[in-house]
Amino acid sequence: MGEAGFVGRRPCRPLLVVAVLAVVLLGSCCAEATADDKISSSRKGATGGSRRRRTSRRRAEAAGPLMVPITVLKSAVDAGAVCMDGTPPAYHLDPGSGAGNNSWIVNLEGGGWCNNVRACQFRRTSRRGSSDLMEKEIPFGGIMSSSPADNPDFYNWNRVKIRYCDGASFAGEGFDKENGFYFRGQRIWDAVIRHLLSIGMASADQVLLTGCSAGGLAVILHCDEFQAFFPHTTTVKCLADAGLFLDAVDVSGGRSLRSYYSDIVAMQGVAPNLPPACTARLDSTSCFFPQNVIDGIKTPIFLLNAAYDVWQIQESLAPNGADPSGAWRACKSNRSACDASQMKFLQDFRDQMVASVRGFSGSGSSGLFINSCFAHCQSELPATWSNAAAGSPAIQNKGIARSVGDWYFGRAEVKAIDCPYPCDGTCRHII
């Protein structure tokens, strides 16, 4: 397995961050993070720009996050690449500089899915379904940051965030005429990537496709497609953060997430756009689960995940529908409130996650960082990406930012899995 094939961890200092579900997980081993908690900084503008402007932005960054403006891709409408309400797709670009001028990060935004008319209607009337309702500028942080202190390996790359407005991890294809829903995630993916290629990405020396949560799942589904856009001379790799959603049994003995995914795949016409290596042997719902896709990915890919993924605990393992008595209500919002049997259930989930990557980890090009934090999305928040003082998680004294950089640039093999919670700092776990 190499130097990081078996690992221990140092304790993280607690940091309280309000999660997307408005829950603060107290006493966590690290900062609790969600796809909506992107407190960060970036540089505004188009490709290129003067040294004076970049210097002034670097100075401003010390005072607060720098904001990156939106670009609405109106030309994509002609190809039917539209958000759920029919508006054009959009992205945010912070151009590279210096040695990073010819390197690109493409980040696929996350933000859940919709599986029925009511949920999709709600989504269509929000920034998750309409570019008209998206923020006109957003902060970039963590792996998207323009700060060399926070993001030493990628700070000066061209960094792009593609906004998420389809509801099926950029993989749907269809139109619900009765309700006016456009399910065009696959077309959005294709149109925006081709546009980025046309404005300079086609000549990139190195590129990285990344995303967290639903965006992390999208990275797994599209990683090989992304590589196919580039010549063999371009270094192409992928990073999926918090995208390892498991087909797990919930607290009632059912499979809540499988039922949910089945509805998404059917409603949004996802099946034709799933990786053929998976659909050749499994049903389409199974192929929306990363555990059934990752072993077939040919492009180098790094999986970053919390073993006790907060979203999966809340919405897959112990959703309200599977816990009508509310026995898990306190535990799933505060791990210190979990009893022994509940911790055992969570430990079993962690073991299932480790088992799901056993085959994947055998690939020499793959990378892994699975830590024992109760968190969700760790690459785009400075506190979890690289800020050791704030409690950024580390395995064998190596944090997330360094681990990803070591893997991408081939400085070291990174296949690190934390010991089970609670970790005393001396245990080792071999996958």
From TrEMBL:
Residues 40-61 are annotated as: Disordered. GO terms for cellular component: plant-type cell wall. The keyword Cell wall biogenesis/degradation applies. Residues 1-31 form the signal peptide. Its main location: secreted. Keywords: Cell wall, Cell wall biogenesis/degradation, Hydrolase, Secreted, Signal. One of its GO terms (biological process) is cell wall organization. It holds the Pfam family PAE. GO terms for molecular function: pectin acetylesterase activity. It is found in: Secreted, Cell wall. Its EC number is 3.1.1.-. Belongs to the pectinacetylesterase family. Hydrolyzes acetyl esters in homogalacturonan regions of pectin. In type I primary cell wall, galacturonic acid residues of pectin can be acetylated at the O-2 and O-3 positions. Decreasing the degree of acetylation of pectin gels in vitro alters their physical properties. This is Pectin acetylesterase.
